[in-house]
Amino acid sequence: MTKTNIRAVRIKPEAAETLVLRVRRTERISPHFVRVTLGDGDIARFRPMGYDQWFRLFIPISGKPLPRLPGKLTAASYLRYLTISKQDRPILRNYTVRAYRAEGPEIDVDFVLHDPPAGGTPGPAAFWAQNCRPGDQVAIIDEGVTFNPPAGTAAVLIVAEESGLPAVAGILASLPRDIGGRAVIEVPTPADVQELDSPPGVRLDWVIRDDPHVLPGRAVLAAAELMPLPDGPAFGWVVGEQALPVAVRRHWIAAGLPKDRIVFCGYWRAGRG
Question: What distance in Å separates the CA atoms of residue 237 and residue 83, rounded to the nearest whole number?
C-alpha cells in the first residue's frame, strides 16, 4: 500500500459523478510523455478546481465499448465494478488534470511513458494513450485536490519525479503570483523538460536522471535534501514513487517543517503493476 496523508487534507469536489468523455486529439509532447485531450460527452458537467486536481479514469479494454459504470465510486460500487468480467472490465487508474480550457470545454491529461524492461511492454494505460483515436470513449470521476496549504503560507516546497509533473504544472499555474518557494522536478531526459507557468518568486529546477536504470526519484531526493527551508510559514508537497515522498517528508520534519504543513503521496510503488 502506498503511503500518503491526502485523506486528511483533500478538498473534495462539489460532485463526484461518473462523466463519459471522448478523446479529441493526442500529441506526443516529449520522449516520455503523451498528451490526450478529452472533451464532448459530459464535459460540461466537469468543474475545474485547479492545482493538482485528480480523477479516476476508466479506460476501455482495446476494442471493447465502455460497460455500464457506477454513477459514483463507493466501496459497494467498486465491488460491483470488480464483478465485470476481466475481458470487458475497463482499466482503472488515477490521473491529474494537466490543463482545463473553457473553450470547448476540454481537459488535457498527460501520460508518462516509462521505459519498460528489456523485452517488456508498456503498462495498459500508457499503451492506450499511445494508441487511442479521436472519438474513443473514457469515463472519469473527479476526486478534487490535495494541494491545500494553510492560510498565511508564504512559500512552497514542491518535489516530484515525472509521474508528478502534470500535478506540479497545475499547482504552479494556480499559485498566487506573489508566493515564494522552490519546485524541483526529476525527468528521464533533457527533452522531457517542459515550459511551466510558475510564479516569479518560485524557483523551478529540473533534475535529469543520468542513469535510465535507476529508480525514478533517487536524483530529485538528493536535490531535495540540499534544499534549505525558506523563511516564513512554508508548505511542502511531495509525490512520486513511494520511496521519494516518504524520504522527503522525513527530511523536512527533521529540518523543522511541521507535519501539518506537509502533503505527501506515493503515486506508485516500484515492483507493483
Answer: 36
DSSP 18-40: EEEEEEEEEEEEETTEEEEEEES
Instruction: Give tens-digit pLDDT for 118-161.
Output: 555 678 899 999 999 999 999 999 999 999 999 999 999 999 99
Query: Which residue, 199, 192, 248, is CA-closest to 219?
Result: 248
Q: From 154, 213, 220, select the one nearest 185 (Cα to Cα).
A: 220
Q: Which pTM value belongs to this model?
A: 0.93
Chain centroid, CA 74 distance in Å? 21
Residues sharing a CB contact under 8 Å with residue 93, sequence separation 6 or more, in sequence order: 56, 57, 59, 125
Q: What is the rounded CA–CA span in Å between residue 8 and residue 78?
A: 22
Write out pLDDT tens, residues 55-66.
Answer: 999 999 877 788
Please tell me the distance from the alpha carbon of residue 261 to that of residue 203, in angstroms, as a whole number. 19
